[in-house]
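Key idea: predict the complex, not the pieces.
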Amino acid sequence: MLASLLGAWALSACSAEETALVEAHLTECGACADEALRLRDAVGLLHSERTLDLDPMLRARVLESCLGRRPARVPVPDWAAPYDAEAARLDALLRDFGDAEWHAPVRLKWFQEERSARRRTTVAGVIGHLMTVDGLVVGALGLDDPLGADAPADPTERTEIYWGATTEPPTRAVHGPWRDQSHTLIRTVSFAGRGVADLSVSYGDQFALPLRDALLDRAFECWIHGSDIAEAVHYPYAPPCGAHLHRMIDLAVRLLPSALAARRRGGLAGPARDLVAAGSPGRSLRLDVEGPGGGEWFVALDSPAAIGCRERSVAEVALDGVEFCQLVAGHIPPEEAAAGQDGDREAIRDVLYAAAAMSRL
Amino acid sequence: MAKDTPPRWDRRMQQRLARGEAAALGELYDRFASLVHGLAQRVLEDDEAADRVTREVFGHVWEHPDTYDPKQGSLRAWVAKLTRRIAVRHLRQAEAKAYEATGEGTEEELEGKILQAAAAARADYIMRSMPAPLWNALELAYVQRRSYRQAAEDLGVTEDEARRRLRLGLQLLSTANTRAVDGARPPGNGQPL
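Result:
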């Protein structure tokens, strides 16, 4: 009976009377005295401080050092690196979450019909959303689409199907399948050979991206939603490394002329001022992106077929790289974006609105 | 608490690493980095030193995946053991350097410190691996200073069961102190890795 108290005694987790009884017993029972000593020593090995969060940038450094020691025979393609890094970063954030965090409310935000749109879900719901939209890329690679072979290609429709499929809200059970799928994606593109980078991934509605860009877009979404989640549970979440951020910005800038043309067709942007032959320099907006991942870009204003250039620049917008990404994600309204603006006001407005309009659920 | 991966996963990971698949290396890191870094941190009590150990451990597994023998146990246990060895070696080097610089300390003190650090790392691994019910009970008593009666209430178990879990948890943990020290100076000229 007293032996059963030894653990509680060693941890000072029993009453004063019990402690006295145990200690009296220890003076006359050698076996218990030995065990008591061992358990007290074991208490000395317990430590309560939570292990510090790993520096998310350590992963890249460790992998690089490994690959320097022994080059990979099957490397991860360079264009898949941002997705690999962002999925790993989000995975590390999720790893220590308890049920309370998984069910924490998250407010997703994007820009639609000229204003901010919002949708409430949970941390688990966000991961489900990422998984179902990643499923587009998975399907394009000929792997099993998590929503089944007949699932639609539109990301929003896919998410609604997933969220609507059960009456129960999603739980932490979604973590494993999301992570397994992202690992499978990385592995599959590693083995697929060079041509796979140009494989077309359809997002429905006549919109498609080559796989290299689709995966970059998924990396972008993974970061943006990772920061939505982190904000919901009050964790810090840094932006991607500069090199990856630069590629994400570059993708958004490349898509801007088409987004602008689509808005023009819908009467939401000013008319084309000067149509030039395809492949020729056209009227442009100079985008000066500051901070890590920044750079200078020229956005063709009148047609996606024209080429942006400095010589025909009619306006200038300067903003921080992370701010630009938040604009593209629909987290900042276009009228509040851009610290510095100079030149043709219609061009500036049209470009900022087109950037925000690229966002979606 | 983190659990061993299934033996099939371990064997497959080993094959993929042997094949030189960079994606497998990434998955290995995602699975074990927090274990490796945590153990190294426990031994060395220094974040940068733990980063270096982490780099060395994954470097070793990536370069020599064939040195893992699935018959000897799980990949996770092997990685933990490797980490302890490398971290203890780093500690020994750091302490020897400090001794050269200051001339303070004796051989016995150094060995004592290393024994202690190795036991701490084994304890860390045991804590990370023990069944959740045992760990939850220990955490309530140790971290939250709950009595076993309060812990029983918190856990929704009988007082008998709470006492049993605390004792069993500590018994498991105490094996960290009694096992042969894998960081001790080996006979001959060094620790084979």
